[in-house]
């Protein structure tokens, strides 16, 4: 086994003009480099192996397929990326709450392994399902995805999106995206079809709380009064965007009813998730009645109160491409919501 002296001698053989270690050249010559240093692969433990260009992979990794170097990046609590409209965005945006498939693929890569099953009980037009299919082409390996959606308009739109996207991909000579299993119906019924412990990741974007009409009218009036105009936006108010995101439901609920409904549903969903799996949940906070509605915190506590899970993280998806509006100016500070929360739960030990 090479000692430290050997390793440094070896590194010195690949030097740049200034006599320093030339990591780029070493990489070009397919030598194992991590953190700017040449790795002596003989020194790796039995459970480690070097993956070209990606770093050292630890076979004990139960969470994902990332190397140590990739893992370090993937634990960042902020995802600061705006995803340009793609994958038939014009069609998918008929659904006000659609999520970028590539953002979903990024989260799926962090919280599952190739071949795992991902479940989205509130699937909409299939951001999660498309993300699971993308994983195959991004080199992280296909995941099987199952989605539930009670509005047939969205299940049909997912089919149209996939057909059109794959026609375009074939025309460009690219491999098609795998078709995933989107089931039409109420998740409260469909969840019974999923065997216990058969899902490694539940990734979803919950239906928003439908405020009762009185609350909503008062809220919209206050928003109109405080809104002087928008710099460059589409005129959507912070409060309205969240409330109207899920356009298919006419029912209204108090916040307590919404939280109780979510808590009960997640308790049932959790049975489907394997013991070392995760639940990852998108939820936007709201601003209403001149105060911040910490929906993410409320939802996290509600889910923890019924389901056998513990909140492991609150990731922030910051979308730098979001339009800014003038709310409250010049009298009152009103936030322009350019982020969403991504709650990460792990299952409690039995
Ligand atoms: C915020 S959207 C999800 C959007 C999705 N992430 C996408 O990329 O299209 C929530 C979805 O849950 C659906 N939904 C609400 N309640 C449901 C239920 N009980 N069963 C199944 N789907 C439901 C709504 O119709 C809505 O499309």
UniProtKB/TrEMBL annotation:
It catalyses: a 2'-deoxycytidine in DNA + S-adenosyl-L-methionine = an N(4)-methyl-2'-deoxycytidine in DNA + S-adenosyl-L-homocysteine + H(+). SUPFAM superfamilies: S-adenosyl-L-methionine-dependent methyltransferases (SSF53335). The keyword S-adenosyl-L-methionine applies. Its EC number is 2.1.1.113. It is an enzyme of class 2 (transferase). Keywords: Methyltransferase, Restriction system, S-adenosyl-L-methionine, Transferase. Residues 74-156 form the DNA methylase N-4/N-6 domain. Residues 1-29, 214-253 are annotated as: Disordered. InterPro entries: DNA_methylase_N4/N6, RM_Methyltransferase, SAM-dependent_MTases_sf. GO terms for biological process: DNA restriction-modification system; methylation. GO terms for molecular function: DNA binding; N-methyltransferase activity; site-specific DNA-methyltransferase (cytosine-N4-specific) activity. Residues 238-253 have a biased composition (Polar residues). Residues 214-227 have a biased composition (Basic and acidic residues). The keyword Chloroplast does not apply. Belongs to the N(4)/N(6)-methyltransferase family. This is Type II methyltransferase. It comes from Natronorubrum bangense JCM 10635.
């Amino acid at each position: 086994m090479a000692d430290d002296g050997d390793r440094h001698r070896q590194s010195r053989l690949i030097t740049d003009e200034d006599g320093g270690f030339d990591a780029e050249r070493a990489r070009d010559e397919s030598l194992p480099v991590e953190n700017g240093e040449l790795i002596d692969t003989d020194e790796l433990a039995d459970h480690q192996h070097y993956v070209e260009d990606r770093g050292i992979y630890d076979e004990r990794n139960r969470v994902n397929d990332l190397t140590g170097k990739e893992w370090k990046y993937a634990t960042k609590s902020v995802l600061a990326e705006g995803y340009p409209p793609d994958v038939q965005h014009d069609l998918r945006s008929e659904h006000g709450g659609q999520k970028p498939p590539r953002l979903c693929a990024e989260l799926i890569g962090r919280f599952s392994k190739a071949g795992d099953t991902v479940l989205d009980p509130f699937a909409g037009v299939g951001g999660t399902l498309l993300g699971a299919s993308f994983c195959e082409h991004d080199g992280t390996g296909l995941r099987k995805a199952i989605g539930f959606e009670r509005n047939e308009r969205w299940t049909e739109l997912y089919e149209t999106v996939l057909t059109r996207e794959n026609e375009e991909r074939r025309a460009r000579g690219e491999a098609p995206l795998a078709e995933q299993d989107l089931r039409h119906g109420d998740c409260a019924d469909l969840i019974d079809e999923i065997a216990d412990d058969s899902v490694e990741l539940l990734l979803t974007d919950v239906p928003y709380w439908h405020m009762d009409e009185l609350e909503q009218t008062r809220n919209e009036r206050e928003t109109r009064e405080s809104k002087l105009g928008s710099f460059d936006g589409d005129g959507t108010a912070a409060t309205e965007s969240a409330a109207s995101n899920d356009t298919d439901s006419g029912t209204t609920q108090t916040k307590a009813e919404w939280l109780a409904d979510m808590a009960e549903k997640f308790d049932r969903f959790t049975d489907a998730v394997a013991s070392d799996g995760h639940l990852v949940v998108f939820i936007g906070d709201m601003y209403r009645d001149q105060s911040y509605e910490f929906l993410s915190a409320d939802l996290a506590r509600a889910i923890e109160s019924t389901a056998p899970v513990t909140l492991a993280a609150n990731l922030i998806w910051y979308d730098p491409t979001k339009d800014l509006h003038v709310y409250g100016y010049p009298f009152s500070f009103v936030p322009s919501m350019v982020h969403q929360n991504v709650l990460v739960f792990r299952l409690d030990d039995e």
